[in-house]
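Write out the 3D structure for:
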Amino acid sequence: METARLADVVVVGAGQAGLSAAYHLQRRGFVAAVPAGPVAAGPVAAGTGGAAAEGPTAGEGRPAGTYIVLDAEDGPGGAWRHRWKSLLMATVNGISDLPGIPQPDVDPAEASSSFLTRYFGGYEHDLGLAIERPVKVQSVTREDDDPAGRLNITTSHGGFSARAVINATGTWTRPFWPIYPGKASFRGRQLHVADYVSADEFRGQHVIVVGGGISAVGLLDEISKVTSTTWFTRRVPLWRGAAFDRQAGHDAVALVEERVRQGLPPQSVVSVTGLIWTPALRAAAARGVLDRHPMFTAIEPDGVRLADGSFLAAGVILWATGFRAELEHLAPLHLRGPGGGIAMDGTQVADEPRVHLVGYGPSSSTIGANRAGRAAVAGIVRLLTRTGIT
């Protein structure tokens, strides 16, 4: 039987939040866990398996601990690897710098998928971060009933044993598909924004776009330039008339944070902030593209039945209905409460101090992900110090 690899901290995911966590672990003096085979419990010698760590150590020249980042992707970039090519740096929402290394000069005409994949890859290389991929984490379990005991991580490449886990798996791998009457009968094409490639593949077909978020309106604008579209949402979209300033951002994040503190499923930040007018969207509105319709009542083989009883023929239904947090591998820990969500204390799961969620709820924005990575590491250092590990 293969012996589990030991690390003080396992980070799951190498998107923006995961890279932020890795950066702050390295800054705190953590070094890469031994790459292969069984290792002794506790920290390894400084410099083993990675670049020299900077920042405070545990004293006597010893590192503060060991860490490893496990990423399911084939290469750097996280979810940005999969964004559609037409999502350019000129049109993508603001992307915050990763901690410690600012973004290089940006060509507004470059696809966000290629730019950010290159930026993330260079960041990992320059800092010598301890990342292994592709490694799919399948489950996280408690080794025993000791609240200060170890956590077992089962993966596609063997087992790991950690004192703490920082989960940074994001949402991209869990697109939300609503259940709708007649959905299976539709003879056209149905796809989620996670599967979107280009508007060109819809030429000559009427496209229904469902959803009230940023992706929905952005793709409506794009698709409407090559074919006809109709927009449906459950609720009337909220458009911001005023500028989205720092205070508005703070207030929006605070509302999402309060939900997760109460153990409720997190809402997206945009559901609180509303949609922001851009010149491109104002032009789309002038063309009638953003004339929103209430949700249809049923899907039929060749289209949808509208709320007023009339029929709309369509060849494509694009579900821009958002994503859910990818947390299935944490299910054995039974973290969810009666409210359907996970009660949080900052980035820490309220009832399980060994587990931190970053890029979850209020930290799902890029600037929030950076801050969450720092906060999670600070919390884990306190935990390990309290239990006499560091």
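The helical segments are 16-27, 112-127, 214-223, 246-261, 269-273, 279-286, 366-386.
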